[in-house]
Please model this.
Amino acid sequence: MIAHLSVDSPITANAVVSRQRSDQFTFAGLGKGNRLLLSLDIQ
Model:
């Protein structure tokens, strides 16, 4: 669902992930970027 957001704006996606998911995915997204978030969403 957040894949399109992560591709366009990694920072915005991280904010969404931090609310829907957990801090684990947040720091992971900040470290790797939108590609990691996109991979998590697909799998």
In short: The first helix runs from residue 3 to 8. The two ends are 12 Å apart (CA to CA). The chain has four helices and no strands.
